[in-house]
Amino acid sequence: MLSFSTTTITSRMIITTLLLFLFTPTLVSSECELLKYDTNLLEFPLNLEYFEAEYFLYGSMGKGLDSVEPNIAAGGPPPVGAKQANLSPVIKDIITQFAYQEIGHLRAIKKVVEGFARPLLNLSSESFATVINDAFGKPLSPPFDPYANDINYLISCYVIPYVGLTGYVGTNPKLQSPVSRKLVAGLLGVESGQDAVIRSLLYERAKEKVVPYGMSVSEFTDKISQLRNKLGNNGLKDEGLKVSTDIGAEKKIQGNILAGDKDSLAYDRSPREILRIVYGTGKEQVPGGFYPNGGNGALAKRYLKSGKK
Ligand SMILES: *[C@@H]1O[C@H](CO)[C@@H](O)[C@H](O)[C@H]1NC(C)=O
């Protein structure tokens, strides 16, 4: 009896193994094909995730990936000009959490695609001051310092993560593989959460003046959003904390704690639009701003090359 059941189990195992052998390769290879199609789109956001990881790590703790998780940087050059921000305990705590979340995001993307090394990032005060000057269309005096205090740092956090969020919304419908879509949905969920936290913290302070400029937090967000709409060059995809009623939710309200289209769905952006914004040049072929040498990965490199022709 015992030997009979052992034989049955053994033969079942053989059959199962055979079946697996017959079917697994085709399943695996079709998933691989789909993932291969998605690779460039999945790798592209590493450019922004590196930015966010370094900016949040330095801002909260005064050190970056090279100290905290060196392998993730994959030998890319260290960021320029990043440093610890002068933050109150609660903001420091929140930004530290964001920083560790970004390390997870980088790792999660690199589990699915090979990815690339950290690009050169210019996270200097001057780099942010340039964005703010561009947003206001005139140089602020003294130059805006993102590392100076809670409000300035939160305003600087308004500058980039939202751009990543719109990128994930734009990428999702272009993906072929369920594995990629699951990854992007997971990234989008937490990036949106970070955006909501940043916007809520700013919203509480919306009427406060940013010292010493005499302009409110709300005006800063409005100007930054207008600049991104201009640089992205593809319509309205960015909204400050206070908008005219016809842009607010259901055209009913001016408070705008979250940005969204006429149905309050998140706006989407393509890799090109994102590069135009983060380079600060309005051109995906012309690097600059936070990315002095441009982004890494096939998509960013292709645009850079097309600019050199
Ligand atoms: C960083 O940006 C500032 C402001 O645009 C610029 O003066 C500086 O040269 C940049 N540094 C690098 C390494 O690109």
Automatic annotation (TrEMBL):
UniProt superkingdom: Eukaryota
Keywords linked to the UniProt accession: Signal
Matching Pfam families: Ferritin_2
Signal peptide: 1-30
PANTHER family attached to this UniProt entry: DESICCATION-LIKE PROTEIN
Name of the protein this chain belongs to: Desiccation-related protein PCC13-62
